TrEMBL record:
Membrane topology designation: Peripheral membrane protein
Name the record gives this protein: Gamma-soluble NSF attachment protein
Biological process according to GO: intracellular protein transport; vesicle-mediated transport
Keywords: Coiled coil, ER-Golgi transport, Membrane, Protein transport, Transport
Record organism: Acanthocheilonema viteae
Compartment(s): Membrane
């Protein structure tokens, strides 16, 4: 079957073959009316490609995301968004990472999952600080305040502490904030990002390539 052929291609390091056969499998499932199976086939393909060809993996995840969004599979959509964010962070495409995190926050705000909104808002603040854009970071925190109980949460306090310490230009203070248990328990992608963050007295309020989450995905990637 096509999925077996894709597995063989993966073992041979053939990313094009892996994608081709998984695409065929996904199309077959879609034609038979099995959207979930089609999306899962694309998910397998993207996971196979993450190390071999991350750019292709991003394309496949976007295809899968579009598919499940059309059929209102919110849990699957959230999973694909998370994988896309991690790939964008790996490639240091912070603008797109910010956009994806923002979209995920909106979904969790709709269902009032305060805990997840808090985690994602912290992630978004970190990405914006990587862009040296404290203005957008603060705006996102304000948006998350619309989610009931977030404003009084520990996550909100961490967000505000990060922005305040970063804007102060006091790197020692900023590094102390980064040692907060909530931050140290984040996914590896964010732990790696935090190692690169340093506060500077030359910090500006915004980035020339504004990662404000309202962009349509065009323009240069933020590094």
């Amino acid at each position: 079957c096509n999925e077996s052929a894709a597995t063989i291609c993966k073992e041979m390091g053939d990313s094009s073959g892996t994608l081709r056969y998984m695409d065929l499998a996904a199309d077959g499932y879609a034609e038979s009316g099995s959207t979930d199976s089609s999306a899962m086939a694309l998910d397998k393909a993207a996971k196979c490609l993450e190390d071999m060809d991350p750019e292709k993996a991003i394309e496949v995840y976007h295809k899968a995301l579009t598919m499940v969004q059309e059929t209102d599979r919110s849990r699957m959509a959230g999973g694909f968004m998370n994988r896309l964010t991690k790939l964008y962070l790996k490639l240091k495409r912070y603008k797109e990472a910010a956009n994806m995190i923002n979209e995920e926050i909106k979904k969790y705000m709709e269902v009032k999952e305060v805990g997840r909104v808090g985690q994602l808002t912290i992630a978004l603040v970190l990405v914006q600080l990587a862009c040296r854009d404290t203005v957008s970071a603060a705006k996102y925190v304000q948006k998350s305040f619309k989610c009931e109980e977030f404003e009084i949460s520990e996550d909100a306090k961490v967000c505000c502490a990060l922005i305040s310490a970063y804007e102060s230009g006091d790197n020692n203070r900023f590094q102390q904030v980064l040692q907060h248990p909530i931050l140290r328990n984040m996914d590896n992608e964010y732990l790696r990002l935090m190692k690169e963050l340093k506060a500077s007295s030359e910090v500006s309020g915004g980035s020339n390539n504004d990662a404000n989450g309202e962009d349509d995905g065009g323009g240069e990637d933020l590094k």
